[in-house]
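Entry 12.
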Amino acid sequence: GGEGISSGLMELAAGGVIPTGGAGVQVGDQLVSAASGALPVVSGDGRMAAYLTQYYPAAATAQEAAVVSLASGDHRSGIDIRMPLVATAGIRGTVVGPDGPMANVPVRVVPAAESGGSEALADVARGVTAADGTFQVFGVPVGAYVLRVLRMPRAELPATMASNPQVLALMGGRGSGPARASDRLTLFADVPVSVQGDITDLVVALSPGATLSGRVEFAGTAARVPMTGLTVRLTAQSEQPGRVTLTRVGEDGRFVTAGHVPGRYLLNATGRTPGWFLKSATVNGINAVEQPFDLFSEDIGNVVVTFIDRQTMLSGKVTGANGAPAEGTVLVFPAAHREWIAQGMVTLLMRTVRTQSTGEFSIVGLPARDYLAVALADADVPDPQDPAAYAALARVATPIILAEGAPRTVSLQLAKVAR
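Predicted 3D structure (tokens):
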């Protein structure tokens, strides 16, 4: 890893940065610290040096890094990484939103080569805007970057909390003052910057995130459930991966989400739906329950979330080599496993279930499609999140086809997997 330089105003309450446990130095009116905990190297003229982030063996980005494989009990030496100390520059500017300068907004600098995915650990530098919207970040080596700014909607506080000075201080002052229309918006900006030296007077204009709107449908004859008990769930797969936002469905079955930053997302719906099962959430022709879709800066309409009154059912028995019932673990994953892996290994499309002592097992609710099923002794079960394991599992697995409302039974024998 590299230095990960953080900067914040010495006026801590206004700047929203409270250093904890790390060493820092003062540069002008800024307190600058390194994520490594080491004291940043600053010369007499205020210039700072930083250690470049490096991946093994000598790569600047994760995409260029070499993979180091370790099996249980392995020990490897010589995995040496040399990190050069280089001169850096600073970036100064102002963040503005629909209502003018934006205070207390985090500013991140990430490598341009990694800005399209999850770069939570790849920040080269970061800071926070002051009360007048200005910011300064330090410790940026020469290179191509993206200045990433994300302001989430302002939390709506109960009246008793909105007047509590301690609560407002913890929120950086965001709960104070009259509510504005922009307080309910997700605001963001991705600004490409080429750093050859100091950058000054940069203006970063924030834009509202894109929304998704649509309706919930029930396709079947079972008794309907109240729409107001349903919630649309949007899960980020790229920017802030795993972050979930929820949107209530109206009485008429329609919904409109809050704004979201561009990225890849999954969408589904949850709630009490006895007798009904989620089948799909169609976004621009993609079933976003099973496959991430791309959200750009434009709103998306006509999203259709469909519940059906039938589900898939898979049951069976596992035996050993001698034909006797055997305990073990059954793994079921898509027959098109390479495509599934490339799309992010959506967990909805796989199951791992332990058999009963009689070797029997059952699985309900998998989306209808072609799958592979394999039974393993507990000691042979691989990490279900390891993509490389599925190529070996596929060679010994049993193909099955699951359809809604059509129970399927299968007999599996404990398999040995060579990896």
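Annotation: Helices lie at 12-15, 159-162, 165-170, 337-342, 389-396. The radius of gyration is 26 Å.
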